[in-house]
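Hey, can you fold this?
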Amino acid sequence: MNLLSPEPRSRASARCAFTLVELLVVIAILAVLVGLLMPTLGRSKSSGFNAACVNNLRQLGIATRLYADDNRERLPSAEILPTMPVNPAKPLPRICDILANYAARSVSGSSHVSGGATVFKCPNDRAGRFAAEGSSYEWNASLNGHRIDETRTDTAFLLLEKGNLSGGVTNFVVVLSPDTVPMLLDYENFHPRPPKSGKNVVFMDGHVAALPKE
């Protein structure tokens, strides 16, 4: 009769089990690996948010052109900051309300308004601009009512002789190229990328890029 004593079985179990020290070593290694991966994952997430924002602005550029097509090539008139209208007695509409139907069409090819609603929300908008203003993107109100392919400053006056009012003046306008004139851009620096501003912008010609450093 072969009787096994409890002692050998206990030793076999001990050999198969982790010791507390080994367990702590494994946890420490995992913590180091997570620490190494976190910056990479953070950069990937930030890059994804930026790509989504760029796509939103591209769709809004299309929506704005669709609006202009229906309105004799004129751009909409909207407030820069709807919660603080320039003239509280006669506030202009929000850009998100003006372009809602057009944004839906640019996204899905339909006229369903809700389909384009999220186009106005930057995924990195932690300032609550979308909730407060209806859009994460600021409308360039200096374009209100202008033609979509042509924008110019108001008439200005220039002294022919600097400092001499009697020397005469001349008036002029500055015509700006559509590829350098912003239509909509991030309200805030939602996408920090030093030394640039961290804002994306869609220009009048429809292309989207980071806002150039001032």
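Oh, and this one too while you're at it.
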Amino acid sequence: MPKPEAVRRGAAEPFWRTKTLEAMTPAEWESLCDGCGRCCLLKLEDEDTGEVHHTDIGCTLLDGLTCRCRDYVHRQKRVPDCVRLTPEAVRSIAWLPQTCAYRLVRDGEPLYPWHPLVSGRAASVHEAGISVRGRLSGNEEEFLEEEYPDRIVDWPALDPQAD
């Protein structure tokens, strides 16, 4: 698998290995997102236990093909409960996918080989089967709220690389 240019040239350690979440530039922060779309799936929280259940329903702005937000810049105006990832949020959100680079960096773990920062290719997250591409039942406007519990799935919370 080809390595990104900076690593091929023998550059210093990549920024995600040397910087804290807080020390990253906005561009570095944004590049940590692998484009899987898992965090943009609707989640249901059990009021009694606090347990979070993922569904296979995408946010109204989630593009099921690109696995990216259709209006990233204005997402919080259009979807008021959209969670903006910040270093503080990354430290407190329990439902981030096991494969999430923000979570991995937070925990001092390496990024997966399919992560675009490692592979050098944005498509590698889809080719590895990590993204939500081909797994969505639809976007939230296509379902009634009472149908959400029927759409609960396990795969978004699992590490697809684990044996």
